[in-house]
Each structure stands twice: as C-alpha cells, then as structure tokens.
C-alpha cells in the first residue's frame, strides 16, 4: 500500500470499535493461512484482490484481521462487499467441515456490524440459507464390519445376515435378519400367522419372552413393550425392506438396525 493512497473513509474511534468487533466475529469463519494450496483462507481471499500484504506483519490472527480490515475499510470503497461475498460461502463450507456449523446469529451480527460501518448488504446476507444441522459422521463400512464381528451377536445374526453386511448388501442383511427372527418365532410358537399379526398374537402373554434379567415389578411393562417393538419391526423394517425398490440405506443405519434385531433375539426364549 503506497503512502500516497488517499483514504475513502475515516476510521473514527466508533469505527475502530466496529472493526474490532468484525475481526473478533470473523476469527472463527476461516483460518488465516494454511499449508494446503487448495484451502480457502483469509490470506487467499485477500490475495485474490491483491491486498494479501494487508495481513502481513502480525503473528496474532485477530490482530492481523483487525489490521487487514482497517486498511480495507479505509482505502477501498467497494472491496469490503466483495470480500464478504467470498468469505461467507467459504466459511459455511469450512465450518461444516469442522463440525461447527456457521449460525444464523453470526450472520445477523455480521450484517449489523457492516451496517454500522456504512456497508449495507443486509438484504444479501438475509437471503443466505444457513443450515445449522450437524452432519452425521460417516463411519467406513469396514469399521462397522469389525464392530459387528466383535459384538456379542446371536448366532442367527452372525451367520447369513453378517455375511451379507460384510459383502455390502446392507438392506438385504437387515431383511434377512428379520426374516430369520420371524421364522424362529413361528417355529417356537407353532403359529401360522406372519409379520405384525404373528408378533401381536404370540408375545401377548410373555411366554416366549425371556424376562429373567428383568425385575418382577417391571416384567409386565417389558412384555408389552417388547411385543410392540416386534410388531413395529415387522411393519417399519421387514415389510419395507421386502420391497425390491426400497432405497438403499446407509451402512450406519443398517448397522444400527442389525444391533436392534440382535437385541430382540436376546430376549426371545431359546427353544427347549
């Protein structure tokens, strides 16, 4: 920045306060620099407008941002808007990657600070859709396979359903596990019914449910709840997964369902 450059704005005491607020707010938006050449940082955004040197000379990130924005505000009339338009989308992606989503509150505060500095882009910022929902961590299928192998699985689950899961047939693994559960319930009860009707009929009196580990005063509730869980599993899982056009579910979801079915097996009385 040459000494002859003329200011387009005065940095009054009140504006210094707002610029300090801006630096504090933006601090968590993006990293200042990065070793990765493909990363979007404050340095790359400033450098893209040939003002990367505005951030130089400060080892403290907050001070570097405050110095950089003070120079941008003082010497550039339209550049602040341009920089913000680049920073906000990059910050949304970066913060989601860091599992700390950018919030609507932060966007509102940014809008307020900029307006106080005479930079009014409230309409643009208000139009940005902010999703604060934290994405679920994706667990590699290989890790889920190992968890299942090391789990105390019922032999009925550790046979064909586990093999199907390990082969990548996640929906099919769940469907097969519940088919096996249904077949075993029919065999032990001698009932000719299927699905939800089967579960509603045979589990009503608790004779097929192992309640040895349940306190006597809780057994009636357990029996009733177990019956409804098995009925629900037939309707919400077995019936749905029996349709060939059902959307493929994630490994994580099928892993969870297999463990639930394993729990159902745990309380099903073993054949005498």
SSE arrangement:
Elements: H1 13-26, H2 42-48, H3 61-75, H4 79-97, H5 104-116, H6 122-126, H7 141-150, H8 155-158, H9 160-166, H10 170-189, H11 195-202, H12 219-241, H13 251-266
Q: What labels describe this entry?
A:
272 residues, elongated, 59% helix
Low-confidence stretches: none
Please state the average pLDDT score: 93
Q: What characterizes the major β-sheet?
A: none
Helix content: 55-70%
Order of helices and strands: HHHHHHHHHHHHH
Q: Distance between termini?
A: 88 Å
Strand composition percent? under 5%
Count of spatially separate domains: 2
Q: What's the number of extended β-strand segments? A: 0
Principal-axes geometry comes out as elongated
Characterization of the model:
The protein is an all-alpha fold and 272 residues long. It is 59% helix and 0% strand. It folds into two domains: 114 residues, no CATH class; 126 residues, no CATH class. The protein is elongated. The mean pLDDT is 93.
